[in-house]
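Everyone, describe these structure tokens:
***
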Amino acid sequence: MKKILLPLMLFPFLSEAQTYTPTDTLLNISNPDKVVITESSKGTRVSLEDGQESILIAYPDGANVKTYRHTSKSIFNLPGLPCGRRTESCGCHGNGWDFSMDGVCIGLVDAMGQTAGGGLQWSKSFEINWLSCLNVGYEFSRSRIYLGLGFAWRNYKATADARWLQPDGDGGVEWGSAPEGVNVRATQLKVFSLQLPLMYTWRIPKSYLKWRMGPILNFNTYSSIKGIYDDSAGNRCEYFTKEFDRRPFTVDLFASLSYQSAIGIYVRYSPMKVLGDASPINFTPFSVGLTIGL
């Protein structure tokens, strides 16, 4: 569905007597197929494609006229949504409820405050986060508040010093020793989360920038450990286990700044530990990266 919204405002002109002319709505067009705007020394004319309706905004002699044009679009708008309230999901501005979706975030994730000597590397660890595959929100002025449903996948990785993650037998995770005679390539801790982002967005006036911030409620439904190594014969092998405890619920703080709802940057931090309190290895995640379609 495509809709073009062209708000027209007649700027007040000051005559020689310094009199003031208030603004007014000159032309109200609903669901036009095509709108043509032409400008000349006489003024600006707005007309429909079939020419049945048009209006001329005449310029007084010596008038100083300034124009401003702004286009906003998102590659993640949901098709077929009603636009009667002029919501953000339809690419325009107004007050009302709407449905929409967010884009994705791809970045590096740091295991901050690692206990038991550290070892997980920021440069090797990454996350993929679809902030919300569906959200419902309320838009007012340049702002929007919404609650969504999405998911995040984080991969914490160590490749240095032959590090080897393994369960400690009591529900925690510890650094252990790989099988004798093998060459350790990497060890990984993976966590998958269903998330509920509660976000506030605001479009910066006279720019193509938009920022958002808010908490993310995470339901951590899956976690695993994988070790990658070469055995004594040179064969590539993997070690895999899910026999350890994760923290089932965490809260993150999220903030991003995007350009034309297309590309931007984000940061994400959680003050809560990833694993259970009794785990010898534990940490809080901090992410930074790029946004696409936010």
The two ends are 20 Å apart (CA to CA). The first strand starts at residue 35 and ends at 40. Residues 1-20, 70-75, 79-93 have pLDDT under 50 and may be disordered.
